[in-house]
């Protein structure tokens, strides 16, 4: 009867920011990104992509609670980079990777003479 | 500095492709990407499903809620779903779900007048609007003429309820776009799995120290037929590496026979074998393609806003200090 609406799991409430950035006050070049209404799907790919960046000293993500629909991504970098720069870079790289995957998949589908919707 | 990229270049090799089945190899990427794609196909690729049911007349043995639930689970052809709007952010109708951009109306009106039990199936759902091709799965393939009883079972549609003489079911249903995260009825996937590709190295030198009997015994110890013995050369050969269930049975057997290291199995961490089965709502290939598109949109949504970046720059001296005095 008092169950929350199902869409609360994936619709960001009005007035709430999708991504919040908070700098760590004790460690240099460290920050926490709070991403609202996302889960392991986004958290894990961003973390793993950050691991490929040699300037990233630490990156990890957590889902604080299954009923709090947000992920925390913690990043620490060397002084050559910044958490924000590393985060943006990771997203750009993942985006390009998906472009590449899409291209490869579409061309292979064509070769198999399969009609796909584009 | 800004030009460095740690991007990967994944490749795909399709093994088998049908409308509702797809098997392919995904290489040069990692498990996080494979799993993200799997999760997106399951829970975030949109389809169309019945979401609102108004029952006018129901004298069947099943209650209204039960029938509404059964209607919701019927897969509808959803090629249109990617271009449709979610009814909650449809501007044309303020989200009451009764406009052409976000909803499709169906009616069902069946009454049993014979002594024989009448099956109400998904084929009895009639779309009121013929403009867009949204039908229950299998609707277009149904036999046009020829009685219901003569139709092959797979063309009879999905059973909703059975009626006896005098019973009637009349209702109006509104189908909407949605995602599997909201309710599993919107998930386009029947199953979607990926596995690592196993790489099997047989230590040939050690293998030759076994007698034919021992080889047979070892080959037969594998619960999933991965190995066989070549009839001519009497050598053990790998026949189906992918049958390996990562159960370590043959490795244990080799140890038990006093031949540790007889075989070495590694799983390649950068290549995956995907199997996708569709409910029929979307083609399997479209499901995967839509998943890539959705994952891109999700990534785009989690980019930092300009405002956040500017606020950080304005952090001033303390910010500069925290960045290491640069």
UniProtKB/TrEMBL annotation, chain A:
- Gene3D superfamilies attached to this UniProt entry: RNA polymerase, RBP11-like subunit
Give GO terms: molecular function aspect only. Answer: DNA binding; DNA-directed RNA polymerase activity; protein dimerization activity
| Record's keyword terms, sorted | DNA-directed RNA polymerase, Nucleus, Transcription
- Its family? Belongs to the archaeal Rpo11/eukaryotic RPB11/RPC19 RNA polymerase subunit family.
What is the designated name of this protein? DNA-directed RNA polymerase RBP11-like dimerisation domain-containing protein
User: Domain DNA-directed RNA polymerase RBP11-like dimerisation, which positions?
Assistant: 30-103
Query: Which BP terms from GO are recorded?
Result: transcription by RNA polymerase II
CDD domains per record: RNAP_II_RPB11
Q: What is the lineage of its organism?
A: Eukaryota, Viridiplantae, Streptophyta, Embryophyta, Tracheophyta
Subcellular localization, per the record?
Answer: Nucleus
Q: Which GO terms describe its cellular component?
A: RNA polymerase II, core complex
Q: Which domain of life does the protein's organism represent?
A: Eukaryota
From TrEMBL, chain B:
Q: Which PANTHER family match?
A: DNA-DIRECTED RNA POLYMERASE, DNA-DIRECTED RNA POLYMERASE II SUBUNIT RPB3
Q: Which UniProt keywords apply?
A: DNA-directed RNA polymerase, Nucleus, Transcription
Q: Which SMART domains does UniProt cross-reference here? A: RPOLD
**GO MF, one annotated term:** protein dimerization activity
* Chief location bin: nucleus
Native species of this protein? Ceratopteris richardii
- List the subcellular locations: Nucleus
What's any GO biological process attached to this entry? transcription by RNA polymerase II
The protein depicted here goes by the name DNA-directed RNA polymerase II subunit RPB3
Q: Which residues form the DNA-directed RNA polymerase RpoA/D/Rpb3-type domain?
A: 21-305
Q: Which family does it belong to?
A: Belongs to the archaeal Rpo3/eukaryotic RPB3 RNA polymerase subunit family.
Q: Which GO terms describe its cellular component?
A: RNA polymerase II, core complex
Keyword Nucleus among UniProt keywords: yes
User: What Pfam families does its record include?
Assistant: RNA_pol_A_bac (PF01000), RNA_pol_L (PF01193)
Q: Does the keyword Nucleus apply?
A: yes
Q: Which InterPro entries match?
A: DNA-dir_RNA_pol_30-40kDasu_CS, DNA-dir_RNA_pol_insert, DNA-dir_RNA_pol_RpoA/D/Rpb3, RBP11-like, RNAP_Rpo3/Rpb3/RPAC1, RNApol_insert_sf, Rpo3/RPB3_RNA_Pol_subunit
């Amino acid at each position: 009867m008092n169950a929350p609406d199902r869409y609360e799991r994936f619709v960001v409430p009005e007035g709430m920011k999708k991504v919040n950035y908070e700098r760590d006050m004790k460690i240099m070049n460290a920050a926490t990104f709070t991403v609202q209404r996302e889960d392991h799907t986004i958290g894990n790919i961003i973390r793993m992509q950050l691991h490929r960046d040699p300037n990233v000293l630490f990156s990890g993500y957590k889902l604080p609670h299954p009923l709090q629909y947000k992920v925390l991504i913690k990043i620490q970098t060397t002084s050559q980079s910044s958490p924000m720069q590393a985060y943006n870079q990771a997203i750009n790289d993942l985006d390009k990777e998906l472009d590449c995957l899409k291209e490869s998949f579409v061309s292979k589908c064509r070769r198999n003479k399969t009609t796909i919707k584009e | 500095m800004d030009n460095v990229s740690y991007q990967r270049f994944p490749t795909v090799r399709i093994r088998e492709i049908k409308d509702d089945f797809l098997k392919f190899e995904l290489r040069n990427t990692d498990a996080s990407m494979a799993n993200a794609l799997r999760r997106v196909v399951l829970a975030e690729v949109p389809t169309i499903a019945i979401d609102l049911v108004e029952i006018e007349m129901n004298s069947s043995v099943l209650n209204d809620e039960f029938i509404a639930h059964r209607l919701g689970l019927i897969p509808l052809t959803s090629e249109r779903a990617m271009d449709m709007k979610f009814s909650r952010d449809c501007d044309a109708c303020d989200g009451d779900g009764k406009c052409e951009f976000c909803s499709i109306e169906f009616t069902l009106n069946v009454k049993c007048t014979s002594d024989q039990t009448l099956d109400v199936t998904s084929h009895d759902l009639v779309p009121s609007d013929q403009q867009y091709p949204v039908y229950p799965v299998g609707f277009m393939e149904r036999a046009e003429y020829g009685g219901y009883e003569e139709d092959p079972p797979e063309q009879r549609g999905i059973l909703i309820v059975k009626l006896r003489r005098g019973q009637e079911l009349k209702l109006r249903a509104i189908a909407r776009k949605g995602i599997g995260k909201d309710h599993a009825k919107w998930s386009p996937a029947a199953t979607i799995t990926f596995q690592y590709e196993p790489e099997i190295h047989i230590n040939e030198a050690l293998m030759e120290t076994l007698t034919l009997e021992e080889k047979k015994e070892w080959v037969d110890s594998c619960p999933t037929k991965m190995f066989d013995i070549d009839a001519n050369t009497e050598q053990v050969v790998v026949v189906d590496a992918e049958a390996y269930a990562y159960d370590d049975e043959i490795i244990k057997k080799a140890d038990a026979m006093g031949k540790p290291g007889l075989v070495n199995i590694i799983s390649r961490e950068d290549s995956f074998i995907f199997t996708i089965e569709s409910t029929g709502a979307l083609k399997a290939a479209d499901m995967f393609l839509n998943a890539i598109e959705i994952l891109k949109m999700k990534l785009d949504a989690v980019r930092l806003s300009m405002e956040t970046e500017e606020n950080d720059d304005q952090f001033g001296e303390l910010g500069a200090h925290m960045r290491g005095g640069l």
